[in-house]
């Protein structure tokens, strides 16, 4: 006699569905939305001031508040700024300095940090790291005059010298960032590459540098902002006023410009204060440039 086998029904497994981030009919977090909107004013308000001031006439800038909308809009301000300065050349100089500084800071700092971390057992590399960290406490104005004399003596009183100084002055901070990141990269990856026949340069270029991409992007952003917005170093180092960068040549109209010029006249120029070929020639070119600005202010 055949026996009948009964099986218990198998419960259907729950199907996992991807949860929507914003389901239909979901509630909006109005509190967080209001907080984000208020915090965004920190960026939006200065941006509005910059746009409004760029479109105002000299008479409009001296009356009312910064919140006043410029009317009538003075589109000719951009034409005046273009005529006062050699904008294409200055933009090219800023771009040249920034590109060299960004690429140089990433490569030089990554190589220095990699060599320090991988040779941490030797006291010479530990001493080099401590020396670089101590350099973080030295501000640029302290070493400004020696750098001006040095760049003039070796013929680097030009945008290339400015880019090289950007690389050197940011070396300590960038090495600190890269060192902390490289310590998390397993050394076994490099040892495997050496077993396969890779030399030191190939290990760095094929193994280490691609793994440093996130930190390299961070260092590149800092380098770009610092080089593009720098005013003091190009102003002091570059001898020829035609090769100045955008932050140096952009005019500051009105009373702010006159106060700035009054302060600049207090800076000593000439061979007694600076080396030959440097700021006394730049000051002559700057005086002709500022004379045109004073004429615009008078108008």
What is the secondary structure topology, with strand pairs?
Elements: H1 30-54, H2 58-61, H3 76-84, H4 87-118, H5 123-135, H6 144-153, H7 159-169, H8 171-182, H9 187-195, H10 200-211, H11 213-229, H12 232-237, H13 246-249, H14 254-264, H15 279-298
Helix pairs in contact: 4-7, 4-8, 4-11, 5-8, 9-10, 14-15
Structure commentary:
The chain is mainly alpha-helical. Among the domains are: 30-74, no CATH class; 97-134 and 160-229, MetI-like (MetI-like fold), CATH 1.10.3720. It is 65% helix and 0% strand. It is built from 15 helices and no strands. It has helices at 30-54, 58-61, 76-84, 87-118, 123-135, 144-153, 159-169, 171-182, 187-195, 200-211, 213-229, 232-237, 246-249, 254-264, 279-298. The longest helix has 32 residues, at 87-118. It is extended, with a radius of gyration of 29 Å. The N and C termini lie far apart (117 Å). Residues 252-293 have low confidence and may be disordered.
Characteristics:
single chain; MetI-like fold; 0% strand; 299 residues; mainly alpha
* Overall 3D form: extended
The CATH H-level homologous superfamily of the domain at 97-134 and 160-229: MetI-like
The CATH architecture of the domain at 97-134 and 160-229 can be named as: Orthogonal Bundle
Calculate the mean pLDDT score and round it: 77
The total of beta strands comes to: 0
The proportion of residues forming helix, as a percent range, comes to: 55-70%
CATH top level assignment of the domain at 97-134 and 160-229: Mainly Alpha
Please work out how many helical segments DSSP would assign: 15
Fraction in beta strands: under 5%
Order of helices and strands: HHHHHHHHHHHHHHH
Radius of gyration: 29 Å
* Poorly predicted residue ranges: 252-293
Query: What is the CATH topology descriptor of the domain at 97-134 and 160-229?
Result: MetI-like fold
Distance between the termini: 117 Å
The multimeric state of the shown protein is single chain
Find the structural class using helix and strand composition: mainly alpha
Main β-sheet description: none
